[in-house]
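User: Sequence recovery, please. Input:
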């Protein structure tokens, strides 16, 4: 029974994604087709529309590229890795872009390394998506604060920005595929983030206040150090 429910739920989600994708691709396709027909009918030089056509094609390319993240075979590449290292790698990747927009990035690391089971490529993709969103949301001279801590069971990573915030009626929509408020957004970033968090048995929450900023709170189970495991075993 439950398996059947899960299967039909999966099919429903796949159906929604597929129709959303078809819809998103059809619009730029229609535009490109229109330009081509117009140029043929009017004898207009296609070069006049070159930039517009290129924009639409790039958009379709972004969409299909990001969409593949959903359907990629679930190749699990999990190993014990440091979340601290992962955050530092992502900061290195985005720093020059952030600095050129006048943003500052701060990272409050936990004192000892937070070890967890992760697919590092996916974890980097997740953090990069979130930090890109933060950079895009803030006008120049914003700041991104990240804080990593842990307790016996979980790691908590907070990614906070002082951007414009998210209106409360949009808060439950931002994780939906294709929801975007950006002119050239795909709306796929956060839904991919959500999936990556789920694949890591984690949780992802958002808090936001208009004019103050937005914070994403991620938690992941940590790899418990051996001596603690032994203590627990002794107790139970
Ligand atoms: P995209 O970035 O392509 O728009 P996402 O799924 O990454 O798609 O984000 C969806 C929407 O969530 C964004 O368009 C934006 O409205 C909102 N959002 C995400 N992160 C932030 C943030 N840090 N501050 C304000 N709004 C955000
Ligand atoms: Mg995004």
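Assistant: Recovered sequence (236 residues):
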């Amino acid at each position: 029974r439950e398996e059947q429910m899960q299967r039909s739920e999966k099919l429903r989600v796949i159906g929604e994604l597929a129709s959303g994708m078809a819809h998103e691709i059809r619009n730029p396709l229609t535009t490109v087709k229109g330009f081509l027909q117009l140029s043929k009918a009017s004898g207009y030089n296609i070069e006049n529309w070159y930039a517009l056509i290129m924009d639409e094609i790039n958009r379709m390319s972004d969409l299909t590229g990001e969409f593949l993240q959903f359907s990629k075979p679930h190749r699990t590449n999990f190993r014990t890795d440091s979340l601290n290292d992962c955050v530092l790698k992502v900061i290195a990747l985005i720093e020059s872009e952030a600095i050129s927009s006048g943003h500052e990035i701060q990272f409050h690391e936990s004192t000892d390394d937070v070890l967890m089971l992760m697919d590092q490529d996916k974890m980097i993709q997740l953090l990069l998506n979130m930090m890109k969103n933060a950079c895009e949301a803030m006008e120049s001279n914003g700041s991104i604060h990240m804080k990593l801590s842990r307790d016996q069971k979980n790691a908590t990573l907070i990614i906070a920005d002082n951007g414009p915030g998210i209106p409360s009626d949009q808060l439950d929509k931002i994780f939906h595929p294709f929801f975007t408020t950006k002119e050239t957004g795909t709306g796929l970033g956060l839904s991919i983030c959500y999936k990556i968090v789920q694949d890591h048995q984690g949780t992802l929450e958002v808090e936001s206040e208009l004019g103050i900023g937005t914070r994403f709170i991620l938690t992941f189970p940590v790899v418990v150090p051996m001596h603690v495991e032994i203590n627990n075993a002794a107790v139970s």
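DSSP finds six helices and seven strands in the chain.
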